[in-house]
Predict the 3D structure of the following.
Amino acid sequence: MIKILDIAPVLSRMVLPTIALCLLGCGGSSVENPLRESEETDATVTQTDVENQSLKVNVDVSKDTVQAGETVNLTATVDELPGSNIIFSWINTTGYGILTSTDQNTAIWSAPKKSEGTVKVEVLQLVVTAINQVISVQSSGVDTDTEVLTSTQTILLTVAN
């Protein structure tokens, strides 16, 4: 006896989806190629043109005049530069008082506990650095470029007696 197998359901479940997927993958795009054969294809593409930008930094100070022992909260904001790493460096230029959290966008400055009897001006500086690594692929190979922007802000605080 010859046994006849019913293979139609197997074919319909395996072969037809395979043929459909093959047909979907075939053919070209209906979108015209933006690069003509005569055009160069090795143009440099950068994420951000840092050379033509400036670093826009704003510093908010909770108060500019303090008494001995008081603290001042400092917060820096930087306009976003896509693809850049931003580094904050707070500097206690005159060395009067104590500056904490010097590598974040916020810092706290504490005036000395005892007044020296005269009005003092404390000078703080914030140096903000933006580093952008640009990688571009050209027909001659891979090209890397590091672009750096810096901005220095000076903050004056008055310590009254």
